[in-house]
Amino acid sequence: MFFSIGDSSDASTWSNVPYLFTKHLEKKGILVRRINLKSPSLFNQLTEKIWNRLIYKILNLFFKRIHYYYSRCFLSTRSSYSIIKKSLKKYPQVDFCIFIGYDYINKFNNIPSLLFGDWTLEVLIKERENRNPFYIEKKLIEMENDNINSAAIVVSLFAQCKESMKRANPKANIIAFDKNVINNLYDGAIQAKEILEKKEQSKCILFVGRGNYLKGAQLLVETFHELYQEDNSLQLHIIGLTKKQFEGLPNDNVYFHGFLRKDVKEERDLYYELLINAKVVVNPTPIWGGYSSIIESMFFYTPVILSPFKEFVSEFGSEISFGIYNHLFEKETLLRNIEKIMYMPHSDYQQMSISAHQSVESYTWDNYVDNIIRCMENNGESY
Q1: Residue 222 in contact with residue 331, Cβ under 8 Å?
Q2: How confident is the model at residue 379 (pLDDT cuts 50, 70, 90)?
Q3: 10 Å Cβ neighbour count for 372?
Q4: Are 108 and 14 in contact (CB under 8 A)?
Q5: Over the stretch 143-200, which tens digit does the pLDDT of each residue have?
Q6: What is the per-residue pLDDT for 140?
Q7: Per-residue DSSP letters for 335-371?
Q8: How many CA atoms lie within 13 Å of 198's alpha carbon, on the beta-carbon side?
Q9: What 3-state class would DSSP assign to 177?
Q10: What CA–CA distance (Å, rounded) separates 236 from 278?
Q11: Cβ distance 352 to 303 under 8 Å?
């Protein structure tokens, strides 16, 4: 049984992860019972709107950036556990319960649970936001830690997060695989020669990211304005944000595409067309630079410019052959780094593009799900 907040048969749920995860489990011959932990009742839908639009905003006035949206509140938790209990009665013969995130676990019978996520709330608050949790958040962290310690297997996407989770839960069976996974929904053939030819001729700089990366995108737009004064053939395409979020900033040859849904064919096609035609993908946002979009860009032979955030450096090293680390969050540094890639010699650029692909070519859901299955068969002991 596969539990997620949202429909796991919908490619737009949680950055495509539940869709690709379940799809590849089924591809391996495993029967998957998909369970949506988000209640379809009108009462819950109305309560969620009131909570997120009113109650959360009031809480946020007193507790800035508090992580207590409806999905984490007691009403949502009670509703979700009711769904879990009913599902276990309906499908009593399942071998494993897989949960996306660390908020829930099977606490009703002996069917083992596997929890799968990126980072815990504790890691998010203490390490990424660099603050102490509020009282309500401490209670949520305690609940997560209880689930982590009770689960048969806990899988983190990132080795750095695994180490932090281990320090907080030394007896828990927490795993992180050597290789990560790319959320690739491209349905065409990946022709290296054709892609490399397009990139060689490209004048396109690409940014992929939503509101969390707005400051990085703003710096990029400001930097692009300087680049455009020297070369007006350049283009900047921004996926995930809209022009309204950049009021007052220059936007010559800047194209805003908003959020592109991969479950909508036209939007998915545009997403991959932009990725394949991009000369370089840039996200200079400090602390966290959009890991998933970066490695997907690399899979499509795209050099990258990003801040050296610790999870990425831990995985790929302090020196990279497939792009440039942007060490200073300032216009002059970013401008020089973009120029290095946009105007580098053909042979150097081609090698950088090939290196980008080779660095992540094994990061497939086929390989990742094979690891998950071996892990469940051995209850995590082989890792």
Answers
A1: yes
A2: confident
A3: 24
A4: no
A5: 999 999 999 999 999 999 999 999 999 999 999 999 999 999 998 889 999 999 999 9
A6: 97
A7: HHHHHHHHTS-HHHHHHHHHHHHHHHTT--HHHHHHH
A8: 18
A9: coil
A10: 9
A11: yes
Please give the Cα distance from 206 to 254 (Å, whole number): 10
CA nearest neighbour of 198 among 283, 336, 296, 300? 300
pLDDT greater than 70 at residue 250? no
For residue 153, the cross-strand partners are 114
- Integer Cα distance of 79 and 86 in angstroms: 11
- Model pTM score: 0.93
Residue 165 phi/psi, 5-degree rounding, is: -65, -35
Q: Which residues, 6+ apart, have CB-to-CB distance to 37 below 8 Å? A: 3, 4, 5, 80, 83, 84, 104
Q: Is the pLDDT of residue 252 over 90?
A: no
- 3-state DSSP assignment of residue 219: helix
- What is the pLDDT at residue 181? 97
- Give 22-76 as a DSSP string: HHHHHHTT----EEE-S---HHHHHHHHHIIIIIHHHHHHHSTT----GGGSHHH
At 72, the amino acid letter reads R
The H-assigned helical ranges of the chain are: 17-27, 42-50, 56-62, 74-90, 121-123, 135-150, 159-168, 192-201, 214-230, 265-277, 291-299, 310-316, 331-342, 346-360, 365-377
Listed residue (382, 380, 383) closest to 151, CA to CA: 380
Percent of the chain's residues with pLDDT above 90: 91
> Which amino acid is present at 301?
Y
Q: Per-residue pLDDT tens for 186-244? A: 988 899 999 999 999 999 999 999 999 999 999 999 999 999 999 999 999 999 999 99
